[in-house]
Amino acid sequence: MKVAIIGAGSVRFALQLVGDLAKTSELSGTLVTLMDINEERLNATWILAQKYVQELDADLRLEVVPSLPQALEGADFVINTAAPSYPDRYDLVTAIGEKHGYYRGIDSQEFNMVSTYSYVLCSYYDLQLALNIAHSMEKFCPHAWLLQTANPVLEITQLLSKYTQVKAVGFCHGFSGVYEVFRTLGLEAQAVDWQVAGVNHGIWLNRFRVQGEDAYPLLECWIAEKSHLWEPSNPWDVQLSPAVIDMYRFYGMLPIGDTCRNGTWKYNYNLETKKKWYGKFGGIDNEVERPRFHEELRQSKQKLVDLAQEVKKDSSLKLTKVYPELFSREKLSGEQHIPFISAITGHTETRLILNIPNQGAIQGIPDDIIVEIPVWVSGDCLRREPLQPDLTERIKYMYLLPRILRMHWALEAFLSKDKRVLEEILVRDPRTRSFEQVQEVLQDIMSLPVNKEMAEYFGYS
After folding, report:
1. Going by DSSP bridges, is the β-strand pair 254-256/350-357 parallel, antiparallel, or unpaired?
2. 214 near 194, Cβ under 8 Å?
3. DSSP letter string over 341-381?
């Protein structure tokens, strides 16, 4: 079996996947092909992955290839983790947006506040790359599964599902926010009967039961007695923040993971407002924590590049000793990719939270829309778990459908190549004061040298 990882220069994420494969005995003998356009980081991944597999004494074959066709040739599974817009291009665009009066950049749209995952309103570079990968798969590995990991997962998976023949499934670990809820309420995860449903970065705890009884009263008790004591441990820690509790009160079910970051401007007018709703850090989506995180991300990648050079010089160095939080000997990463591959190839039937076409799973949402729901995976079969109870009407009509419309706008801009669609999207932004403001900010963004390809695509001079 062959698994191709596109964007393997992410280093850390690719190494997590390699580690999960190495620890999954039923997938022994798998060929893992690594590909990225960043040669330095790809080489670092290659060196560290080989060393990691060796330390785990795993039967896993590794190779590095320089081109996409070589990576895809004969692949059974393709994992797309490449993110061409993030974070460097995003930082440039955010600065221009703020200069023109758009706090946190033009992509901080209402109902799409996870702004780093939408690049210039339609994620042109991310969509184009994913489409190129899918069309290449149609030629070089037409029967392979595409595990779409890079954001925006909703837009990309929707595009591939509708306009290509590949078997595309979207992956995200945001659902793991449920485990924070269980820990806070003192519940053992295996004792909880739970479901989440919605769209990527917009999912809700529709079923929450313990010993056959509704467990939401336990949450109500925690809110009444202890929620005022809640403090975030880091900028990403927002699962039980005041914003989440407020959304729960309004929508009738608890938002999970990144969902509260996709809330309205009520929680995001400025840093002071963000701190009120997300705690002392103000969440991750602000002018202090996001730049700091991006710098930490760059430093982390450089740390791994440097570590690869150390391994190259000293083969006796043990990754599992010097960096055990990444190079674990036994613990799996928690990502769903390798359990999915194991289940598809005929091993244990597995329940995962995946992004696939709705096909009646959420009532009132069109069948062809990509939704994030519980799915049972076994032997090339994806079986949607019946959702009981259904999502509330407010979730559907005041959260999901507006977010789905935003996805349609992005795809309409991308497919039509019409810059007027970009303008019309931005006109609807609550921060827009004039059409001239819209035209000027888009012109400045398109004038960036790194955006030359996108500017030509949309007809900017």
Report:
1. unpaired
2. no
3. HHHHTTSS-EEEEEEEE-TTSSTTS-TTSEEEEEEEEETTE
The separation between the first and the last C-alpha atoms of the chain, rounded to the nearest angstrom, is: 47
Catalytic residue list: 173, 258
User: DSSP assignment, residue 397?
Assistant: I
**Residues in Cβ contact with 306 at an 8 Å cutoff, skipping those fewer than 6 apart:** none
Spatial distance between the Cα atoms of 349 and 332, rounded to a whole number of angstroms: 18
In terms of Cα–Cα distance, which of 69, 36, 48 is closest to 318?
48
- What residues does 35 pair with on adjacent strands? 6
Per the CB < 8 A criterion, the answer to whether 262 and 403 are in contact is yes
Specify which residues 277 forms β-bridges with.
none
Report the alpha-carbon distance of residue 403 to residue 262 in Å, rounded: 9
pLDDT score, position 111: 75
Which residue ranges of the chain lie beneath pLDDT 50?
none
Q: How far apart are CA 144 and CA 72, in angstroms?
A: 9
- Within 10 Å of residue 436's Cβ, how many Cβ atoms? 8
**Largest CA-CA distance found in the chain, in angstroms, rounded:** 64
Token digits of residue 318:
């043990």
**Residue of 168, 222, 234, 237 lying closest to 200 (CA atoms):** 168
Tell me the C-alpha distance between 189 and 179, whole Å.
Answer: 7
How long, in residues, is the chain?
Answer: 461
Q: Is the pTM above the cut of 0.90?
A: yes
Q: For residue range 295-346, what is the model confidence (pLDDT) as tens digits? A: 999 999 999 999 999 999 999 999 999 999 999 999 999 999 999 999 999 8
From CA 83, how far away is CA 6, in angstroms rounded? 10
Give the separation between CA 189 and CA 332, rounded to whole angstroms: 17
Q: Are residues 407 and 154 in contact, defined by beta-carbon separation less than 8 angstroms?
A: yes
What per-residue confidence (pLDDT) applies to 321? Answer: 95
